[in-house]
From TrEMBL:
It comes from the Bacteria. The lineage of its organism: Bacteria, Bacillati, Bacillota, Bacilli, Bacillales. This is Uncharacterized protein (TIGR00290 family). It holds the Pfam family Diphthami_syn_2. Residues 27-237 form the Diphthamide synthase domain. GO terms for molecular function: diphthine-ammonia ligase activity. Gene3D superfamilies: HUPs, putative n-type atp pyrophosphatase, domain 2. GO terms for biological process: protein histidyl modification to diphthamide.
Length: 241
Protein backbone atom coordinates (compact mmCIF):
# COMPACT_ATOMS: atom_id res chain seq x y z
CA UNK A 1 0.00 0.00 0.00
CA UNK A 2 1.15 3.54 -0.76
CA UNK A 3 0.15 6.05 1.91
CA UNK A 4 0.62 9.79 1.75
CA UNK A 5 -0.48 12.75 3.86
CA UNK A 6 -1.64 15.56 1.59
CA UNK A 7 -1.98 18.19 4.30
CA UNK A 8 -5.72 18.58 3.89
CA UNK A 9 -5.78 18.76 0.12
CA UNK A 10 -7.29 15.32 -0.27
CA UNK A 11 -10.01 16.13 2.25
CA UNK A 12 -10.81 19.32 0.40
CA UNK A 13 -11.40 17.55 -2.91
CA UNK A 14 -12.73 14.32 -1.44
CA UNK A 15 -10.06 11.85 -2.59
CA UNK A 16 -8.56 9.06 -0.52
CA UNK A 17 -4.87 9.28 0.39
CA UNK A 18 -4.22 5.54 0.68
CA UNK A 19 -4.20 3.18 -2.28
CA UNK A 20 -3.90 -0.56 -2.52
CA UNK A 21 -1.96 -0.88 -5.78
CA UNK A 22 -1.24 -4.59 -5.92
CA UNK A 23 -2.56 -6.00 -9.22
CA UNK A 24 -4.04 -2.61 -10.17
CA UNK A 25 -3.52 -1.44 -13.75
CA UNK A 26 -2.18 2.09 -14.16
CA UNK A 27 -1.30 4.76 -16.68
CA UNK A 28 1.96 6.54 -15.93
CA UNK A 29 2.34 10.25 -16.49
CA UNK A 30 5.66 10.00 -18.33
CA UNK A 31 7.90 13.03 -18.87
CA UNK A 32 10.91 10.88 -19.75
CA UNK A 33 12.80 12.27 -16.76
CA UNK A 34 13.86 11.11 -13.32
CA UNK A 35 10.72 11.89 -11.27
CA UNK A 36 8.32 10.08 -13.59
CA UNK A 37 10.74 7.13 -13.76
CA UNK A 38 10.93 6.90 -9.97
CA UNK A 39 7.15 7.12 -9.57
CA UNK A 40 6.77 4.34 -12.15
CA UNK A 41 9.41 2.25 -10.35
CA UNK A 42 7.70 2.71 -6.98
CA UNK A 43 4.32 1.77 -8.44
CA UNK A 44 5.52 -1.52 -9.91
CA UNK A 45 7.39 -2.29 -6.67
CA UNK A 46 4.02 -1.93 -4.93
CA UNK A 47 2.59 -4.57 -7.27
CA UNK A 48 0.83 -2.32 -9.77
CA UNK A 49 0.71 -3.25 -13.45
CA UNK A 50 1.79 -0.65 -16.05
CA UNK A 51 -0.58 -0.60 -19.00
CA UNK A 52 -0.06 2.82 -20.61
CA UNK A 53 2.31 5.77 -20.72
CA UNK A 54 1.00 9.30 -21.25
CA UNK A 55 3.33 12.03 -22.45
CA UNK A 56 2.13 15.55 -23.15
CA UNK A 57 3.68 17.11 -26.26
CA UNK A 58 3.73 20.47 -27.93
CA UNK A 59 0.78 21.07 -30.30
CA UNK A 60 2.74 19.81 -33.35
CA UNK A 61 3.55 16.59 -31.42
CA UNK A 62 7.22 16.77 -32.40
CA UNK A 63 8.69 17.23 -28.93
CA UNK A 64 7.51 16.82 -25.37
CA UNK A 65 6.52 19.71 -23.18
CA UNK A 66 9.11 21.02 -20.66
CA UNK A 67 11.71 18.31 -21.36
CA UNK A 68 11.70 19.00 -25.13
CA UNK A 69 12.36 15.36 -25.99
CA UNK A 70 11.83 14.33 -29.61
CA UNK A 71 9.12 11.76 -30.10
CA UNK A 72 11.63 9.09 -31.19
CA UNK A 73 13.25 9.19 -27.73
CA UNK A 74 9.97 8.87 -25.85
CA UNK A 75 8.89 6.04 -28.14
CA UNK A 76 12.20 4.24 -27.50
CA UNK A 77 11.72 4.60 -23.75
CA UNK A 78 8.24 3.10 -24.06
CA UNK A 79 9.55 0.19 -26.14
CA UNK A 80 12.21 -0.58 -23.54
CA UNK A 81 9.58 -0.40 -20.80
CA UNK A 82 7.32 -2.67 -22.85
CA UNK A 83 4.37 -0.34 -22.37
CA UNK A 84 2.28 1.37 -25.09
CA UNK A 85 2.79 5.12 -25.44
CA UNK A 86 -0.07 7.58 -25.70
CA UNK A 87 0.69 11.20 -26.58
CA UNK A 88 -1.39 14.34 -26.61
CA UNK A 89 -0.35 17.57 -28.27
CA UNK A 90 -1.46 20.71 -26.47
CA UNK A 91 -0.66 24.30 -25.70
CA UNK A 92 -1.25 25.44 -22.13
CA UNK A 93 -4.79 26.59 -22.94
CA UNK A 94 -5.83 23.15 -24.21
CA UNK A 95 -3.67 21.12 -21.82
CA UNK A 96 -6.39 20.13 -19.38
CA UNK A 97 -8.84 19.14 -22.09
CA UNK A 98 -6.26 16.94 -23.79
CA UNK A 99 -5.21 15.42 -20.47
CA UNK A 100 -8.82 14.57 -19.62
CA UNK A 101 -9.34 13.05 -23.06
CA UNK A 102 -6.36 10.74 -22.45
CA UNK A 103 -7.64 9.73 -19.01
CA UNK A 104 -11.05 8.90 -20.47
CA UNK A 105 -9.39 6.73 -23.10
CA UNK A 106 -7.56 4.85 -20.36
CA UNK A 107 -10.77 4.22 -18.45
CA UNK A 108 -12.42 2.76 -21.55
CA UNK A 109 -9.83 -0.04 -21.52
CA UNK A 110 -10.08 -0.65 -17.78
CA UNK A 111 -7.31 1.55 -16.38
CA UNK A 112 -8.53 3.42 -13.30
CA UNK A 113 -5.28 4.58 -11.66
CA UNK A 114 -2.87 7.26 -12.82
CA UNK A 115 0.65 7.42 -11.39
CA UNK A 116 2.33 10.83 -11.10
CA UNK A 117 5.78 12.02 -10.02
CA UNK A 118 4.83 14.98 -7.82
CA UNK A 119 6.98 15.32 -4.70
CA UNK A 120 5.98 18.29 -2.56
CA UNK A 121 4.57 21.17 -4.62
CA UNK A 122 0.95 21.44 -3.51
CA UNK A 123 -0.29 23.36 -6.57
CA UNK A 124 0.86 20.49 -8.80
CA UNK A 125 -0.77 17.90 -6.60
CA UNK A 126 -3.99 19.85 -6.34
CA UNK A 127 -4.28 20.21 -10.13
CA UNK A 128 -3.66 16.51 -10.76
CA UNK A 129 -6.03 15.35 -8.03
CA UNK A 130 -8.79 17.76 -9.00
CA UNK A 131 -8.49 17.07 -12.72
CA UNK A 132 -8.40 13.29 -12.35
CA UNK A 133 -11.45 13.48 -10.08
CA UNK A 134 -13.42 15.01 -12.97
CA UNK A 135 -13.30 11.65 -14.75
CA UNK A 136 -13.17 9.51 -11.59
CA UNK A 137 -9.57 8.47 -12.17
CA UNK A 138 -7.57 7.67 -9.01
CA UNK A 139 -4.41 9.81 -8.92
CA UNK A 140 -1.50 8.13 -7.13
CA UNK A 141 1.67 9.96 -6.05
CA UNK A 142 4.29 7.42 -4.88
CA UNK A 143 6.91 10.10 -4.10
CA UNK A 144 4.70 12.53 -2.23
CA UNK A 145 6.26 14.29 0.80
CA UNK A 146 9.43 12.20 0.84
CA UNK A 147 12.70 14.15 1.29
CA UNK A 148 13.94 15.15 -2.15
CA UNK A 149 17.49 14.03 -1.50
CA UNK A 150 16.31 10.61 -0.31
CA UNK A 151 14.40 10.04 -3.53
CA UNK A 152 17.41 11.02 -5.62
CA UNK A 153 19.80 8.81 -3.69
CA UNK A 154 17.47 5.85 -4.22
CA UNK A 155 17.24 6.74 -7.91
CA UNK A 156 20.99 6.40 -8.26
CA UNK A 157 21.35 3.44 -5.90
CA UNK A 158 18.90 1.22 -7.81
CA UNK A 159 20.73 1.87 -11.06
CA UNK A 160 18.97 4.59 -13.02
CA UNK A 161 21.03 6.54 -15.56
CA UNK A 162 19.95 10.09 -16.41
CA UNK A 163 21.39 13.29 -17.90
CA UNK A 164 20.52 16.97 -17.61
CA UNK A 165 19.10 18.11 -20.94
CA UNK A 166 17.36 21.41 -20.05
CA UNK A 167 18.73 24.18 -17.83
CA UNK A 168 16.89 27.28 -16.70
CA UNK A 169 19.74 29.80 -16.83
CA UNK A 170 17.82 32.17 -14.56
CA UNK A 171 18.26 29.72 -11.69
CA UNK A 172 21.47 27.78 -12.42
CA UNK A 173 24.59 27.96 -14.63
CA UNK A 174 24.30 26.64 -18.17
CA UNK A 175 27.48 24.57 -17.85
CA UNK A 176 25.55 21.83 -16.03
CA UNK A 177 23.86 20.87 -19.30
CA UNK A 178 24.73 17.34 -20.37
CA UNK A 179 25.93 16.22 -16.95
CA UNK A 180 25.16 12.70 -15.79
CA UNK A 181 22.97 12.65 -12.70
CA UNK A 182 25.17 11.45 -9.83
CA UNK A 183 25.62 11.98 -6.10
CA UNK A 184 28.61 14.21 -6.90
CA UNK A 185 26.42 16.34 -9.17
CA UNK A 186 23.82 16.70 -6.42
CA UNK A 187 26.54 17.84 -4.02
CA UNK A 188 27.78 20.42 -6.54
CA UNK A 189 24.31 21.83 -7.07
CA UNK A 190 23.51 22.01 -3.38
CA UNK A 191 26.85 23.72 -2.64
CA UNK A 192 25.66 26.49 -4.98
CA UNK A 193 22.29 26.71 -3.26
CA UNK A 194 20.51 24.98 -6.17
CA UNK A 195 17.84 22.37 -5.50
CA UNK A 196 19.40 19.10 -6.65
CA UNK A 197 15.94 17.75 -7.48
CA UNK A 198 15.12 20.63 -9.83
CA UNK A 199 11.60 20.54 -8.46
CA UNK A 200 10.94 24.20 -9.30
CA UNK A 201 12.03 23.78 -12.92
CA UNK A 202 15.73 24.55 -12.48
CA UNK A 203 16.53 21.70 -14.87
CA UNK A 204 15.07 18.63 -16.55
CA UNK A 205 16.55 15.21 -17.27
CA UNK A 206 16.24 12.29 -19.66
CA UNK A 207 16.41 8.74 -18.27
CA UNK A 208 18.12 6.22 -20.54
CA UNK A 209 18.53 3.15 -18.35
CA UNK A 210 17.52 1.61 -15.05
CA UNK A 211 15.68 -1.27 -13.39
CA UNK A 212 12.42 -0.59 -15.24
CA UNK A 213 14.01 -0.85 -18.72
CA UNK A 214 14.63 -4.05 -20.68
CA UNK A 215 17.61 -2.41 -22.38
CA UNK A 216 19.42 0.92 -22.39
CA UNK A 217 17.97 3.58 -24.68
CA UNK A 218 20.86 4.39 -27.04
CA UNK A 219 20.99 8.19 -27.11
CA UNK A 220 23.40 10.64 -28.68
CA UNK A 221 23.62 14.22 -27.49
CA UNK A 222 24.03 16.91 -30.12
CA UNK A 223 23.81 20.66 -30.48
CA UNK A 224 22.85 23.20 -27.84
CA UNK A 225 20.09 25.71 -28.38
CA UNK A 226 18.80 28.57 -26.26
CA UNK A 227 15.45 30.30 -26.03
CA UNK A 228 13.59 32.28 -23.40
CA UNK A 229 16.34 31.85 -20.83
CA UNK A 230 16.58 28.08 -21.20
CA UNK A 231 19.41 26.02 -22.68
CA UNK A 232 18.42 22.76 -24.41
CA UNK A 233 20.65 19.83 -25.29
CA UNK A 234 19.67 18.02 -28.47
CA UNK A 235 18.93 14.31 -27.97
CA UNK A 236 18.56 11.71 -30.70
CA UNK A 237 18.76 7.96 -31.03
CA UNK A 238 22.11 6.46 -31.92
CA UNK A 239 22.07 5.12 -35.45
CA UNK A 240 22.47 1.35 -35.61
CA UNK A 241 25.24 0.05 -37.84
Amino acid sequence: MISSIYEGISDEIGIEVEYELENQSFVASWSGGKDSAMAYYRAIKAGAIPKQLLTMFEPDEKQSKSHALPIEIVKAQGESLGVPLMIRGADWESYEAQFLDAMKECKVVGIYHGVFGDIDIEDHLNWVQTTCAKVEMEAVHPLWMEPRRKILEEFIEVGFEAYIIVVNTKTMPAHFIGRKFTTELMDELEALGIDSCGESGEFHTVVVDGPIFSERVPVVFSELSERNGYVFLGVRLEESE
